[in-house]
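thread from #wetlab-drylab

HS: before we spend reagent money on co-crystallization trials with NDP, can we at least see a predicted complex? here's what I'd submit
DV: go for it
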Amino acid sequence: MTTRPTTTDDAGIPAPSDEHSQSVGPNGPLLLQDHYLIQKMAQFNRERVPERVVHAKGGGAHGFLEITEDVSQYTKAKLFQKGKRTPLFLRFSTVAGELGSPDTARDPRGFAIKFYTEDGNYDLVGNNTPIFFIRDPQKFSDFIHSQKRRADNHLRDNNMQWDFWTLSPESAHQVTFLMSDRGTPASWRNMHGFGSHTFLWYNAGGEKFWIKYHFKTDQGIRNLTAAEAAALASSDPDHHIRDLYRAIESGEHPSWTLNVQIMPFEAAADYRFNPFDLTKVWPHADYPEITIGRFTLDRNPENYFAEVEQAGFEPSNLVPGIGASPDKMLQGRLFSYPDTHLYRIGPNYQQLPINAPKVPVTSYNFDGPMTYRNMRDPVYAPNSAGGPVADPAPFEGADYQVAGEIVRSAYTLHADDDDYVQPRALWENVLSDTDREHLVGNIVGHASAPEVTAEMKKRVVAYWRNVHKDLGQGVAEGLGVSNG
Ligand code: NDP
Ligand code: HEM
């Protein structure tokens, strides 16, 4: 006979009963002195942290990155040196839906990776698309408000979404991706990931480069049609969580090939597109993708709350050899993520096992709610008591010159900058006839929701006509709007 452990309360004291509260006689009222019952109810009331304000619904897994090529001439980042293997945790997500929302909703997918490197954590918090809806963080909360729920009826509202998009022409490229079948991936395993922003790499000699990350799925791209996605939304709202969990559980470990595009530092100034504009890609003809490694997911979380819900990713976690670029969106995100974690998870979120680096932390920050980092004297710097000292050496090569007037302004335009040229290239040169047909159908379906006004439908047609006249024509016909 196997002996089972005794239940305890949270102080480790043996629990008197898993079934019965303490009462005055079998039928009498309960007693406040039943601490075990009180603790159980009080703890239950505190089981949730707030859901993420965006990307609330998701799932994740552990894995590792392996670098197969020598890129030391571009970066000294230790995790990108040939032969290196780095543990990681990846969280996938949808953006606009709440915790219980369906995984197959039309939405970009988050693709957030925490690399536990020997120089501390490096977080790459990307999406399954190489671009985004806007290019200035000033517009982010407004954009998200337009995608979530109305103030009055608490409903999501397609009219509101098209209102924002059609008034923000820089969204056209991302909305083209979103409305294509890539807006409803078959599973997280069957989509690419992108760092999306441009980042800085610098090597041991101080040479600098601009780079973009592409994680290409080794499982192949597979998407759902709008009808398939809608059917799964009701039959299995957790379809993507289930798919990833089951695959890993059964030993099918998904992997992604890591490619980078590398631009010489000096080439940015007069490149034909603004290379820091998050609504643009770097066309492959200009900067081909170079394969440098692969990552694999091979281990499911043991506890969803501890590892997935409490994971806190932050684009500001940048290790030596890697830096930020002047992309205004990235600059905004450097502030936003650590700030939201301080609120959502708590001041010592970085001490939780999922967020803690796998190297010693010797910072002078300490105390606060729920800390268990045992700070030792000296508690200040500079000190003459042998405490840790900061070292600029690993960051040598990261600095570069910027100058200009303090303004509130759009980016200055580069030769080919235009909001429609890249979505037009996608429509004209990349999408198949079937892709185009589905794109038109998905837009028409979305803009046919009862709340979308006749006036808004005209604006929707005008928006797509700017991308391509055939696309505008298809949408006009589908919505029953004259294409003028
Ligand atoms: P290329 O023909 O060299 O690249 C086209 C890219 O599009 C490939 O990365 C391809 O990779 C991807 N693609 C293929 N089918 C689709 C689809 N249905 N939806 C979205 N992406 C798809 O041309 P360019 O580099 O000149 O880019 C042309 C356009 O392709 C861009 O304007 C952009 O809209 C889109 N694109 C470009 C990317 C880039 O980094 N240059 C990346 C992704 C898209 P795969 O099939 O493996 O996804
Ligand atoms: C999550 C802000 C743009 C990808 C979040 C969260 C915030 C936020 C507050 C919630 C984090 C949490 O509670 O843990 C912003 C701001 C942006 C921006 C202010 C622009 C100014 C982007 C872009 C991308 C992106 C451009 C992708 C390229 C993600 C991902 C998550 C996320 C993947 C989920 C991370 C996770 O799995 O925990 N964002 N975001 N965001 N964001 Fe952004």
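DV: Residues 130, 177, 180, 182, 192, 216, 221, 281-285, 422, 425-426, 429-431, 435 surround NDP (ligand 1) (CB under 6 Å).
HS: ok that's useful, forwarding to the group
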